[in-house]
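Problem: given the chain below (184 residues), write out its structure.
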Amino acid sequence: MNLKEWRQDEKAKSITYFSIKRPVCVSKELIGMLKRISEENENKNARLCLHASPDDSLHDMIILEYQNKKCRKPHKHLEKEETLHMIEGKMVSLIFDEKGTLVDKTCLDENNLAYRTSRNQYHVWLPLTNHVIYREIKQGPFKQEDNISPRFDYIDALKRCVDFMDLTCSNPNCKNPCALSKIK
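Solution.
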């Protein structure tokens, strides 16, 4: 990775680089570099933003997330849709209605490569492998207040949907720790 073509966001909660070059191309070598940077930083979650700034109207990111460092709290966006494209690993997508009833559960992997959610749907992506790498595309700009937490008992809803998974949240970078950090 030519660091002259990327600007690191020191304020981000994960390792984040913004592309400062156009056009930008994502190669296997670039993904390998993202993995190495993450490993050199105690396996922190990392992302490559193909857009130039958090204020851009379209966010296009390559995201590396570890199973034990992924936020497990569902959320929704009133005005934003999201599209995912799996690159490596396996994860489950869960969609809930306003009452916490499961609406959709899809495994994303080499067979189900792309997935799109609608606005105003509670959702969460949970890695099933040690780590996942995926592309996420959604409307910008990024505003933390756009992530709306559910009023339903999301812990109970998650336990019903992924009873095979340890749901304990151990994300040390979480700015809004959820009740999952207290599950034992």
